Amino acid sequence: MMNEFINGNDLDGGLREPLTQLTQRIGFIPTSISSLVSFAVELFTLSEGLSPSTAAVREIWSHSVRTGYLAALIAETHSDCSQVIWQSFAGGLLHDIGLLILLSQEAPPFWGVVELALTRGTNLQVLERECYGTTHAELGAALLSRWGGCQEVVDTIRFHDDPFRNSETRFCPASAVFLANLLEGGGIAQDSDGVPNAACEAYLLRLGLWDHIPYWQGRMRDLQNVSLR
Ligand SMILES: [Fe+2]
Ligand SMILES: [Fe+2]
């Protein structure tokens, strides 16, 4: 099954390293997770064809692969449950699929929203709610829910920018993806810009993740510079 991802088109390429590493360390990828990875590959491939913003779709894909892999690494150190590790990987891969909906359906006005977020220095999701009445996190969670994704990964997408709103208060895939996404810097400007606010800081402190940020920053720099480009 893994080779289906690895030997496909360019979008699949970045999956080789994380999938190889993770399967070697924590065991074979569960069917439920491989279905989610296939879904991500299909969705990004379709979006690349449909969206007038091809370069942005590719950039979000790379961002998502790096986020998924770092999230899995974080989960490995904070959980001994392989399901949590794989769900963290899948959640990172899928966390920004709501952006694909906006880029495919609403590209010109959506780029205006991104521009406005940059100009104002406002979090993208705040402006999305003002303009669309929803956010890319909520859109992505709704899409995966309709396609039968497990609740943990749906919640990871929904709460990837504000996991302290999640009913799960312990370390979970949403925690890992939140930190990985924060450190990756966001696939689109102002979408988690690498600067945690007070609520984020309190959340990371409570879970014991705060003190490990410098280490994970270093691991993310490695992923950005070498492994997953
Ligand atoms: Fe996002
Ligand atoms: Fe992101």
Structure description:
- It is a single chain.
- By secondary structure, the chain is mainly alpha-helical.
- The chain has a single domain, classed as Hypothetical protein af1432, CATH 1.10.3210.10.
- The N terminus is likely disordered.
- Helix content is 70%, strand content 0%.
- α4 crosses α13 and α9 runs antiparallel to α10.
- The structure holds fe (ii) ion (FE2) (2 copies).
- The site of one fe (ii) ion has 9 residues, from α4.
Give the key terms:
229 residues, mainly alpha, Hypothetical protein af1432, 13 helices, 70% helix, disordered N terminus, binds fe (ii) ion
Stated plainly, the CATH topology is called Hypothetical protein af1432
Strand runs, count = 0
Distance between the termini: 23 Å
* Helicity level: over 70%
* CATH architecture call: Orthogonal Bundle
By helix and strand content, what is the structural category? mainly alpha
Written as H for each helix and E for each strand, in order along the chain, the element string is HHHHHHHHHHHHH
How does the major sheet shape up?
A: none
Q: How many discrete domains?
A: 1
Bound molecules: fe (ii) ion
Average pLDDT value?
87
**Fourth CATH level, the homologous superfamily:** Hypothetical protein af1432
Q: Quickly count the helices.
A: 13
